[in-house]
């Protein structure tokens, strides 16, 4: 995320909190109750967002991990495309030999 994105999110949360406070005031709550409930809802949303982030960290489903995996796949694909047919046959034979040895173990 870029710095401007973080600033935008911060301003958006500030505006959302104020709007929620005003909505709760219009709904009939007094100012202290409206303040408490608007803060509680914003903190609840923040905790929910953090939990989704932690879930992505634990499952390794983050943008960085995906970029690294895509890069590794692209490098491997490029290397395979550059190999001669003889090299590909040799690689296939090595793979089959490893599979046979792992089945026998």
Keywords:
mainly alpha; 2 domains; elongated; 105 residues
Please provide a brief summary of the model.
This protein is mainly α and about 100 residues long. It contains four helices and no strands.
Q: How much helical structure, as a percent, in the residues? A: over 70%
Mean pLDDT: 91
Beta-strand percentage range: under 5%
Content-based structural category: mainly alpha
- Tally of contiguous helical segments: 4
Q: Which secondary structure elements does this structure contain, and how are they paired or packed?
A:
Layout: H1 3-26, H2 31-58, H3 63-82, H4 85-104
Helix pairs in contact: 1-2
Structure description:
The structure is a single chain. This protein has helices at 3-26, 31-58, 63-82, 85-104. It is mostly helical and 105 residues long. α1 (3-26) packs antiparallel against α2. The mean pLDDT is 91. The chain crosses the membrane at residues 7-24, 36-55. This is DUF3007 family protein.
